[in-house]
Amino acid sequence: MTDALTRIHAAFADAGVTGRLHAVDIDSGAQLDAGADQPVCTASVHKLCLLVTLHEQAAAGFLDLTEQVECPPEGRTAGPTGLAAMLDGARLSLRDLAYLMMSVSDNAAADLLLARVGLDAVNRTTARLGLTGTHAVHTFGELLATIKEDAGPGGARSLADPHVVARLRALDPARTNHSTPRDMTRLLAAVWRDEACTPEHGAAIRRVLGLQVWPHRLASGFPFDDVHVAGKTGSLPTVRNEVGVVEYPDGGRYAVAVFTRTARTSALQPAADAVIGTAARLAVDALRAPQ
Questions:
Q1: Residue 60, pLDDT above cutoff 80
Q2: Which SUPFAM superfamilies does this entry report, sorted A to Z (predicted)?
Q3: Considering only Cβ atoms within 10 Å of each terminal Cβ, which end of the chain, N or C, has fewer?
Q4: Backbone dihedral region of 105: left (phi > 0), alpha (psi from -120 to 50 degrees) or beta?
Q5: Cα radius of gyration rounded to whole Å, the chain
Q6: Does residue 266 carry a pLDDT above 90?
Q7: Which pLDDT value is given to residue 138?
């Protein structure tokens, strides 16, 4: 494990990021810790907590996942994907909103779901599961509003200035939605062991996580047809994250959480994206190696 940690830290350094990682064998409990208990900004990774809450409430009979929701164009939370990028009204079920939220990280879909279940319910769910380092402070629309306010009159263009980025509340775990890598792998392991929800709802959560379309982070470390990766990304200025589960054909299954920060303020961060897959592969290989 020591050699793997050395290689992971070297990979983070080569990519120009500060990285935090936790990986765990879901069945044996063997783990690898590279800053696993450090507070991190979750960004859209927190949508996983919302998804689990939604299914927990459905299992308890508080809502029906086929319930239809009107999605008018007015007042939608901004974003580059899904409903957030669409121009016309729509009507979708709660479970289809959840699909958009997880597969393409649709902010508008996420906030429609939050309007249905509430932030307090999300925090009750994470507390019930023992995720003591995890807390939702605001909706995704509110998170984006803090960035706009903190950026000042220069708007989005000012986010290229490191001094502006340094003052963003959205990048301070003490003032935004936050967790730790260990909490996120604990949540994923609970989902895969059907401890977070009933087996029926656990299967539905796993299905949606497996439909994420982004292959450039966690999945890039496992380019094999017979290895399945299910996960959720998260992105903010200088932040690139992903948490997920890697399943091998021999039955091995590994929860991995990787959170990165870089000093570079460019919108495109291919090295930061790629090192998530690299670090995850190093961690999983170490867990799979004979001890």
A1: yes
A2: beta-lactamase/transpeptidase-like
A3: C
A4: left
A5: 18
A6: no
A7: 97
| Residue 173 burial (CB count, 10 A) | 18
Q: What is the mean pLDDT of residues 107-136?
A: 98
H helix intervals, the chain: 2-15, 47-59, 94-103, 107-117, 119-128, 140-151, 162-166, 181-192, 199-209, 270-288
For the chain, the straight-line distance linking the first and the last C-alpha, in angstroms and rounded, comes to 9
Neighbours of 197 (CB within 10 A): 24
Q: Could you tell me the two tokens for 20?
A: 């935090």
What does the alpha-carbon distance between residue 212 and residue 285 come to, in Å, rounded to a whole number? Answer: 23
CB atoms within 10 A of CB 60: 11
Looking at residues 148-166, what average pLDDT do you find? Answer: 90
pTM summary value:
0.96
* Beta bridge pairs of residue 71: 90
> How much is the pLDDT for 209?
98
Residues 56, 190: Cα–Cα separation, whole Å: 13
Distance of CA 228 to the CA centre of its chain: 17
CA 100 distance to own-chain centroid = 14
Mean pLDDT over 204-224 rounds to 97
Largest CA distance in the chain: 57
| Amino acid in position 94 | L
Distance of CA 50 to the CA centre of its chain: 10
Q: Which amino acid is at 54?
A: L
pLDDT tens, 93-121? 999 999 999 999 999 999 999 999 999 99
CA 159 to chain centre: 22
| pLDDT score of 154 | 85
Helix, strand, coil % over all residues of the chain, rounded to 5: 50, 20, 35
For residue 94, count other CB atoms closer than 10 A to its CB: 23
Task: Give Cα separations from 263 to 67, 160, 257, 273 (angstroms).
Answer: 44, 11, 21, 14
Q: Please tell me the distance from the alpha carbon of residue 55 to that of residue 94, in angstroms, as a whole number.
A: 10
